[in-house]
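User: Here's a chain of 317 residues. Predict its fold as tokens.
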Amino acid sequence: MTKAIVKTDFQFAGQKGLYEGKVRDVYNIDDKYLVMIVSDRISAFDVVLPKGIPFKGQVLNQIASKFLDATSDICPNWKIASPDPMVTVGYRCEPFPVEMIVRAYLTGSSWRDYKAGAREICGVPIPDGMREHQRFDHPIVTPTTKAEIGSHDQNISKQEIIERGLVSKEDYEKLEQYALALFERGSKMAAERGLILVDTKYEFGKKDGEIYLIDEIHTPDSSRYFYADGYEERFAAGQPQRQLSKEFVREWLMEHGFQGKPGQTVPEMTDEFVASVSDRYIELYENITGEEFVRDETDNITDRIENNVKNMLARLR
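Assistant: Prediction complete.
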């Protein structure tokens, strides 16, 4: 098997701390910059799975880097540069404690809740009579709280966010405006590739009083895509949609009796399954970007990352 990076433990000049997320390891440099290393870890149902997926970190980092550049005219973002295929270096911002989820279709977790009887998501009413994968009249914003590792993100309404003082009314309305504008841009870019941007999440932070887009954007870990070709026919026939997302990993886990609930055990991830997931991520990259994926050298990944980041930080500091 090709090597996968599931843990990093670097010591960079000016390092103030390390935050290990579900997928990303984020190094604080001088309380001014962040070095975000996108590992090959994979999570589903808010659980980090026991094996890494080769090239997944490179796929996610390069997609996010491309879309950060393509949307910087809409909203300031944290990126300064991407000095390594698995790394982005950017400004340290104070993150808002909520994630902005934008949905254009009733699918995934929203469909599962709807099928169970829910008729609103995060305070947004959903009409009766809708079907799986049906398009909403217009995209809706359904925020969640940001969870720690091992915990589940929790749906929350705009009203509750403001009432609890998690985000001011003025800032929240700006976040909502940015999220919808970014989603519109992402939808147009997806359409050019024959894809539909179904739903996605955005994270924001503040730096010097200004709101910045942070973390990733429009990757298959944070977004769901349908193929546009055949969508209407499949929807009319009540058939599953052809998707570009990691939903296939969730579906595989559910087929093997795992949904992240207490007492459940992650099924065995065979080498064959891991390789198939890696191939699927590369397929996602090529479909989303329209570019051929170039597998970077994997023999000495940690040395490569360390050298590239140190050279970048030397220029910044």
